[in-house]
């Protein structure tokens, strides 16, 4: 496949009902009103020379290269800033225009180095192309005058350089930073001849830049260029694939040279990201070929033995024989599997199939257990399906945006940029979060209400908001009457109207002034289309499921579900966490969220798979660990997940792992969990396999192989091989065959096929006979469950309480540059932005403990203690501290407890009672961690060690 | 000319707060800061950005766009010489280059003793009495090397 060059219309494509007909160079065309002459010409295939215009940005009209002649108009208007008019007659190529354009280009080139042959953008430079297009042959001004050819180069950003001497000051980068990314980190410094692009007078690394890459993509010259391109040269072919980081699921062009990735460029045709990216997907893919990759299978008898590299056959046979031995010795239910939210739908489906049909039990679970399982439960109960209601584009029509327990600018940056664009257009914003996240106030963004509640009081807060809506007569009664179960509504309305739910009554509990709660509630109910976006700050609580239902109640009561600009939208954490849930990764559900006790469904699977299946739910991850400690659960197959770092109460997790007799890890790195494993099967990164990921808007995107698996097998092939070794034969030649099986067995996927994905680009499930091209928005005319169900959401405080010993509340989260347990991002230059996890603490709490910024502090909870550095921050409220869990050595989850959501066991990561004090040494756990990190990760010396 | 205050972020914040409710507050704030401190201290940029909900890059763009905003403190006195066409035609360029040579500084620089900063401006609207200048904000018409020598002496005396 060749390098994909996407068409650049020069100015954004307008969508309007009114068409305008005009003539360009003698050809007639009808285009939407508001289209620029430049874009209309491009629609005819005529590229008008341009430099400052690109279709991701509003027209600017500064480069003066795109001049055209319009009959009856004076002068030569810029085609980018001239909208089409009915009957307009445009000429794009005349002698006069050619002379003007050549003259303009001559001026540009008089202050531009003539090093095209050795320039990193050679062959990929719009300036070079335009010089050719306008026929520039000489520069009469010479090169001796004042110029910028000696301007210094800024190489501070790890991923791209800023070569000022090559800059033509077209402002595309500045505008991309403002319009596309919304960070406003770039400006034009100075004026006149002294005008230069500047990241605020600082270097790029030290500036406000978030390294999203939008400026690099927008730059028409080599000024902003990827270091990988500078090093490797321009790519030769493109493969369209899907990012393997967060749940936004951005489409990228992997631009390749042979099997080497030169760069990842966001794909304009990707419907989740529409050509935008963040620092992770755009730049942090180097982990895929990091020297830490384990590419040979390994086994060992006990975890204190060094690993021995063996053949695939030996490793698989050993794993199979151990699993069989354990089942023979301890019973069929003594083993289980964990699917990965980072692997493809097809791979996930195979792992749960292996467990249900090969192991013969339902002991399969996934990391969604520890993130969005309450979303599944809560939305299924109230609305009828376990997924967000909208597509991302819906936010463009939201008038009021409510962000609850999510930090989109860090966790879901590409969607955050879209949301921020809507906010700059005037949408109102309510942020409900204990911490002052960037959305509360950042350049050109200001929340109308920030409700900084105390962690653990979400349900009290949502009830208070609902109370205001019900008691002040703000319920959309017509909607409720038509769409919802009235009996349930009336019970709920009576419950919520009780005075104990009033904002004034819960003020002490939540810590938020009642007037703000009332204001926010009124805004949500009366501000037009209102959309809720939420994250793990909602779900990772003892009442996570209750809170999800509370939000659904609120949306139903105000008629905010079923149309664009509204909805209840989980921002899902990992690339395929939606997909792993859809694929039947939970112990109680087959693919498509059908309970294992449902006879018809189970019989369909039994018939197709040719085995009998259990009708009782299996073990969840915490139960597996509990039973391991109790001695009844002995073997685990884990694909691409690191529960020893990611799951709460690390010491309990490792105790469970240590108690097992055979743990099979399939991963790209020797992760924390692998310290306790007996078989290591090399996994493959998203670049090494075909498949699909499903993002937070239920969009199924293709993942395409760009390089062969480093270990020789893609993850789906490994699962097949393990299954065959176990004696449950699987036979698929390509992931498309697995998808065919999924489609056949899953009503919501019935219409999905690789052929259709190829044709449509992506598909949002449900996709079946009723919706052959998928479903961008759910619950449009009726709820999936029929009538929307209001649920009683009684606030029950968590049992995790602060007290004299543990007076502060710890809440955890993530940061832009790192991703989850950091296994990927820590092995990239992204760590330069976040080298270690730090503890954010309010100045008041710091001062009373004698803690200064940067001090090493001990963070103690009832579960354990760790040491990390303090950062004094007014983002925090007094009484609440915050840290991230990206670094294994920090061990943030040593602190977190095993309290969990009442319905789904989703851990209560967001509330842990802690004490903070100064210390001068690592905690005992950390000291032991360093020891075990050495002892349990040894690879036998008779073979080449990985490191 | 009164000596500008030392940089003080608390005072700067108070000045910013006093103006930030104005429409288009950036320029009034920057003028007020420069009036107080004699220049726009680099630490002022993030404070202004925070107060107006702008990025610091945007504020940097504003500050650098206007030559009148200084990034460093000026000398005790500031002499602005017009370099526009009318003054050039009345021998302004020559008078200016002589002065700079005498003082041993270039455009925009301050004498080593810190008494005088000389800057170019492009038209003071005083073309009728070109070549013209501005000394500590006071216009001077029909300047000559002699009148400028007086100005320098005056600057050094105070």
Describe the structure.
Among the domains of chain A are: 299-371 and 576-748, 3-Layer(aba) Sandwich (Rossmann fold); 384-570, 3-Layer(aba) Sandwich (Dimethylsulfoxide Reductase, domain 2), CATH 3.40.228; 808-935, Barwin-like endoglucanases (Beta Barrel). Chain A is 29% helix and 16% strand. Chain A contains 30 helices and 37 strands. In chain A, the strands form 10 sheets. A 7-stranded mixed β-sheet of chain A has the order 14-13-28-27-26-15-16, covered by helices on one side. With 158 residues, chain B is of the alpha+beta class. Chain B has 2 domains: 9-65, no CATH class; 77-157, Glutaredoxin (3-Layer(aba) Sandwich). Chain B is 46% helix and 11% strand. In chain B, a hairpin with a 2-residue loop joins strand 3 (133-135) and strand 4 (138-140). The radius of gyration of chain B is 17 Å and the shape is elongated. At the A-B interface, strand 7, strand 19 and strand 20 of A face helix 4 of B.
Main sheet: strand order of chain A? 14-13-28-27-26-15-16
CATH superfamily of the largest domain in chain B: Glutaredoxin
Under CATH, the topology of the largest domain in chain B can be stated as Glutaredoxin
Rg for CA atoms of chain A: 29 Å
Keywords (chain A): 2Fe-2S, 4Fe-4S, Iron, Iron-sulfur, Metal-binding, Oxidoreductase, Repeat
Family (chain A): Belongs to the complex I 75 kDa subunit family. In the C-terminal section; belongs to the prokaryotic molybdopterin-containing oxidoreductase family.
GO molecular function (chain A): 2 iron, 2 sulfur cluster binding; 4 iron, 4 sulfur cluster binding; formate dehydrogenase (NAD+) activity; metal ion binding; molybdopterin cofactor binding; NADH dehydrogenase activity
InterPro entries (chain A): 2Fe-2S_ferredoxin-like_sf, 2Fe-2S_ferredoxin-type, 4Fe4S_Fe-S-bd, 4Fe4S_Fe_S_CS, Asp_de-COase-like_dom_sf, Formate_Dh-H_N, Formate_DH_asu, MoPterin_dinucl-bd_dom
């Amino acid at each position: 496949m060749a390098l994909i060059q996407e068409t650049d219309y020069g100015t954004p494509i307008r969508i309007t009902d009114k068409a305008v007909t005009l003539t360009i160079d003698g050809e007639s065309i009808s285009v939407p009103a508001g289209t620029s002459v430049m874009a209309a010409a491009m629609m005819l295939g005529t590229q008008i020379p341009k430099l400052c215009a690109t279709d991701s940005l509003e027209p600017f009209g500064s480069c003066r290269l795109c001049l055209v002649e319009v009959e009856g108009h004076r002068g030569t208007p810029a085609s980018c800033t001239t909208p089409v008019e009915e009957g307009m007659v445009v000429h794009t190529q005349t002698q006069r225009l050619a002379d003007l354009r050549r003259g303009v280009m001559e001026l540009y080139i008089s202050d531009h180095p003539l090093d095209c042959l050795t320039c990193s953008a050679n062959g990929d430079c719009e300036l070079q192309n335009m010089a050719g297009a306008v026929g520039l042959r000489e520069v009469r001004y010479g090169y001796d005058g004042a110029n910028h050819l000696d301007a210094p180069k800024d190489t501070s950003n790890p991923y791209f350089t800023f070569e000022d001497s090559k800059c033509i000051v077209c402002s595309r980068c500045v505008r991309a930073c403002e319009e596309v990314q919304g960070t406003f980190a770039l400006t034009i410094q100075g004026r006149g001849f002294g005008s230069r692009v500047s990241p605020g007078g600082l270097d790029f690394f030290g500036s406000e830049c978030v390294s999203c890459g939008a400026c690099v993509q927008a730059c028409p010259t080599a000024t902003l260029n990827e270091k990988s391109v500078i090093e490797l040269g321009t790519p030769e072919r493109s493969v369209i694939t899907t990012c393997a980081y967060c749940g936004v699921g951005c489409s990228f062009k992997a631009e390749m040279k042979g099997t080497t990735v030169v760069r990842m460029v966001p794909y304009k045709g990707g419907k989740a990201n529409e050509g935008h990216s963040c620092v992770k997907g755009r730049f942090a893919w180097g982990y895929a070929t990091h020297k830490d990759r384990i590419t040979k299978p390994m086994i060992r008898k006990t975890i204190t033995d060094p690993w021995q590299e063996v053949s695939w056959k030996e490793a698989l046979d050993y794993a199979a024989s151990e699993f069989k031995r354990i089942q023979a010795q301890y019973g069929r239910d003594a083993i289980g599997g964990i699917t990965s939210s980072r692997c493809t739908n097809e791979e996930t489906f195979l792992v749960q199939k292996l467990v249900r049909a090969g192991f013969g039990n339902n002991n399969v679970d996934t990391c969604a257990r520890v993130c969005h399982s309450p979303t599944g439960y809560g939305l299924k109960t109230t609305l009828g399906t376990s997924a967000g209601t909208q597509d991302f584009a819906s936010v463009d029509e939201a008038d009021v945006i409510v962000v609850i327990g999510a930090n989109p600018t860090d966790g879901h940056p590409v969607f955050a940029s879209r949301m921020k664009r809507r906010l700059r257009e005037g949408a109102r914003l309510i942020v409900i979060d204990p911490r002052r996240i960037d959305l509360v106030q950042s350049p050109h963004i200001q929340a109308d209400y920030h409700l900084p509640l105390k962690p653990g009081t979400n349900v009290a807060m949502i009830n208070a908001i609902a109370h205001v809506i019900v008691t002040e007569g703000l319920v959309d009664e017509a909607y409720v009457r038509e769409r919802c179960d009235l009996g349930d509504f009336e019970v709920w309305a009576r419950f919520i109207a009780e005075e104990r739910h009033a904002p004034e009554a819960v003020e002490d509990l939540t810590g938020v002034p009642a007037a703000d709660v009332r204001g926010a509630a009124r805004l949500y109910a009366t501000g037009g289309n209102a959309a809720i976006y939420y994250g793990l700050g909602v779900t990772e609580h003892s009442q996570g499921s209750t809170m999800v239902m509370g939000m659904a109640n609120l949306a139903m009561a105000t008629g905010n579900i079923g149309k664009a600009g509204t909805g209840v939208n989980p921002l899902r954490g990992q690339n395929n966490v939606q997909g792993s849930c859809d694929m039947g990764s939970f112990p109680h559900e087959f693919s498509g969220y059908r309970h294992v006790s449902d006879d018809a469904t189970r019989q369909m699977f039994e018939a197709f798979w040719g085995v009998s299946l259990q009708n009782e739910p299996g073990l969840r991850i915490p139960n597996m660990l509990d039973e391991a400690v109790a001695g009844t659960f002995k073997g685990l197959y884990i694909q691409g997940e690191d529960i020893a770092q990611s799951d709460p109460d690390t010491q309990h997790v490792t105790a469970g792992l240590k108690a097992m007799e055979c743990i099979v890890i399939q991963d790209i790195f020797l992760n924390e969990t692998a310290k306790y494993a007996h078989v290591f099967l090399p996994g493959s990164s998203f670049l090494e396999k075909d498949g699909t990921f499903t993002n937070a808007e239920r969009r199924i995107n293709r993942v395409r192989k760009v390089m062969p698996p480093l270990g020789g097998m893609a993850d789906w092939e490994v699962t097949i091989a393990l299954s065959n070794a176990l004696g449950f034969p699987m036979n698929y030649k390509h992931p498309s065959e697995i998808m065919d099986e999924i489609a056949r067995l899953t009503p919501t996927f019935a219409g999905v096929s690789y052929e259709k994905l190829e044709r449509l680009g992506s598909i949002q499930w449900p996709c079946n006979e009723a919706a052959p091209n998928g479903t961008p928005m759910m619950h449009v005319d009726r709820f999936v469950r029929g009538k929307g169900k209001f649920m009683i959401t009684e606030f029950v405080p968590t049992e995790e309480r602060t007290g004299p010993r543990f007076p502060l509340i710890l809440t955890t989260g993530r940061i832009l540059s790192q991703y989850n347990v950091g296994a990927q991002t820590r092995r990239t230059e992204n760590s330069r932005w976040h080298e270690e996890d730090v503890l954010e603490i309010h100045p008041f709490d710091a001062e009373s403990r004698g803690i200064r910024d940067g001090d090493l502090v001990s963070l103690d909870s009832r579960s354990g203690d760790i040491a990390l550095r303090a950062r004094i921050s007014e983002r925090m409220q007094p009484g609440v501290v915050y840290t991230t869990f990206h670094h294994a050595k920090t061990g943030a989850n040593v602190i977190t407890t095993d309290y969990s959501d009442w319905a789904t066991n989703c851990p209560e990561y967001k509330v842990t009672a802690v004490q903070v004090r100064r210390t001068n040494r690592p905690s005992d756990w950390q000291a032991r961690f360093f020891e075990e990190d050495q002892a349990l990760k040894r690879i036998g010396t008779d073979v080449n060690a990985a490191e | 000319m009164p000596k500008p205050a030392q940089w003080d972020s608390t005072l700067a914040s108070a000045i910013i707060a006093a103006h930030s409710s104005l429409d288009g507050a950036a320029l009034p704030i920057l003028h007020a800061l420069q009036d107080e401190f004699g220049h726009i201290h680099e630490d002022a940029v993030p404070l202004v950005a925070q107060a107006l909900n702008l990025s610091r890059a945007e504020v940097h763009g504003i500050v650098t766009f206007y030559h009148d905003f200084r990034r460093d403190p000026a000398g005790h006195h500031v002499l602005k010489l017009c370099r526009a066409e009318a003054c050039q035609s009345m021998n302004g360029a020559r008078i200016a280059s002589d002065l700079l040579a005498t003082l041993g500084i270039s455009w925009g620089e301050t004498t080593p003793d810190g008494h005088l900063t000389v800057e170019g401006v492009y038209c003071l609207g005083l073309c009728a009495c070109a070549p013209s200048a501005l000394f500590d904000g006071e216009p001077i018409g029909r300047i000559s090397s002699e009148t400028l020598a007086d100005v320098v002496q005056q600057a050094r005396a105070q």
